[in-house]
Amino acid sequence: MIIPKESHLTPEQERDLQSITKEFGIELMKINGETRTIYLMIGDERQEEMLARIGGLDYIDRVDMVQRPYKLMARDSGLATHKVRIDGKVVGAGFTVIAGQCTIDPKNPNYFYETAHAVKEAGADALRGGVWKPRTSPYSYQGDVKALDILLEAKARTGLPVDTEVMDPEQLDIIVENDVDVLQVGTRNALNYGLLREIGRKINGRKTCVLLKRSMHMGKIEEFIMAAEYIVAQGNPNVMLCPRGTTPAMDGYRNHPDECIAPLLKERTWAPVIVDPSHSVGKAQYVPFACLAAASYGADGIIVETHVAPRHGIGDDPKQAVTPDVLAKIIRDARAIHELQRPHLEHLMTGA
Ligand code: PEP
Ligand code: MN
After folding, report:
1. Which residue's CA is the nearest one to ligand 1's atom 8?
2. C-alpha 72 – ligand 2 centre gap (Å)
3. For the chain, does the N or the C end have fewer beta carbons within 10 angstroms?
4. Which ligand 1 atom sits closest to the C-alpha of 244?
5. Relative to the alpha carbon of 192, which ligand is closest?
6. Tens digits of residue pLDDT in 287-315
7. Beta strands in the chain, from DSSP E residues, in sequence order
8. Which of 131, 187, 242 to mutate to test the pocket of ligand 1 (most atoms within 8 A of CB)?
9. In degrees rounded to 5, what are phi and psi of residue 55?
10. Residue ID of nearest Cα to ligand 1 atom 6
């Protein structure tokens, strides 16, 4: 990783740098952090002569040889000061809440509009709504592109930024063209490296963020962080990490709740952690407890399935969506807990 002295290189400096690396068969990937641009070397970066020449450029601060398998996601990488923003608002500056329906029902758009207004009223920062759904059964409702119009209409009516899941490159093109603010990668695609790379490529140069769910298969923490690295290595570091429970499930729950990995993720990476308590516990009555637990564990926020009339919803909404009045209480209490745990998080990060 090449770290310049100033926040950005001039086009001329960039060209000179590129001509050196090219001589040694290295491709340079430009990563545009919020406060600085850094350059990732793709290829054999341990070539003494090349390193000496780059190190000798007066506008280069240093070349970091990161030993960890993830170079960009690490807390001590050149992106340590990067802030992820949703619609201009820094994620984690307060306790960020994304809320809305699991699934937008194209036959009942009014439920979604009412839910959108209600989550805004309850204090949410962004609106979620599933357009296409990854369903375990091929016979269940799979989603409908018509739901995207409803999502965009709700965005226009409320002014809230929106989040939806993409599962393939065709959906990705549609979502990016329509300026969806947060692109969700679900647990089933969390290790679909081709899709992750394609997402990274498509959002490069845009303000779009990605909410990357953790694979449900109890993989190692490094596997989760490396999946994020796939996206970030394409140039846009706006990635949030989302623990959502793993399998095998804890008896009586939908998954095995994993909000407790928030401090671990925060210690190892600079990325904000947004916990998904809805899919982790899978039952509306348990969701408030899991939300408060996420706040206690130092998460930067939560994504909560919410519906004005859960019993009339589709997808996961009938069983796990909370109502907007419950969401309002969750937000009030989770934000208070988030403040209370702050000194403990600072202690973890600085050892002070
Ligand atoms: C969802 O958010 O509705 C969803 C399908 O999530 P996950 O990928 O975590 O199962
Ligand atoms: Mn869902």
Report:
1. 186
2. 30
3. C
4. 9
5. 1
6. 999 999 999 999 999 999 999 999 999 99
7. 2-4, 27-32, 37-42, 60-63, 85-86, 89-90, 96-101, 126-129, 162-165, 182-185, 209-213, 239-242, 274-275, 301-305
8. 187
9. -60, -25
10. 186
